[in-house]
Write a structure and sequence with these properties.
Keywords: Nitrogen fixation. The protein is mainly beta. It has 1 helix and 10 strands. Strands 9-8-7-4-10 form a 5-stranded antiparallel β-sheet, with no helix packed on it. Strands 1-2-3 form a 3-stranded antiparallel β-sheet, with no helix packed on it. It starts with a strand and ends with a helix.
């Protein structure tokens, strides 16, 4: 790390120099780990949208239904049970194991209609 600053007044940004690549990159606080910390690969990163793979409850009350969309706030790589995430579901911040989350489906690429497409009669 060679510097620190802020972005939008509330996000800490570190300037990191990757010596092997001779590349300087700005990284948010949640994207930086200690150089000697073990690396645990994860399926998701901070700020990614995810889908609840099952329903989650607190004190017997379901607070996030299966299929509900949430946002990863922090990746927790040092849990004994494996990678977990702090996920913001509407109204609740939950600590969720990686195995209980699914990625959002890929967006559908739409092609532009040509004049020939517009002239074809509907069947």
């Amino acid at each position: 790390m060679i510097g620190v600053g802020t972005f939008l007044q509330d996000q800490i940004i570190y300037t990191v120099h990757f010596l092997d690549e001779d590349r300087i990159v700005g990284c948010r606080e949640e994207e930086v780990i200690a150089g000697d910390a073990p690396w645990a690969p994860s399926r998701f990163e901070a700020r990614e949208k995810v889908i609840a793979g099952r329903s989650f409850s607190l004190r017997g009350e379901v607070v996030a239904e299966k299929g509900c969309i949430g946002e990863v706030i922090r990746v927790i790589r040092d849990m004994p049970e494996g990678v977990h995430y702090h996920v913001n579901f509407p109204g609740y911040m939950l600590c969720i194991p990686e195995t209980s989350l699914e990625p959002l489906p890929k967006p559908v690429n739409r092609r532009k209609l040509t004049e020939a497409d517009e002239e074809e009669p509907a069947a």
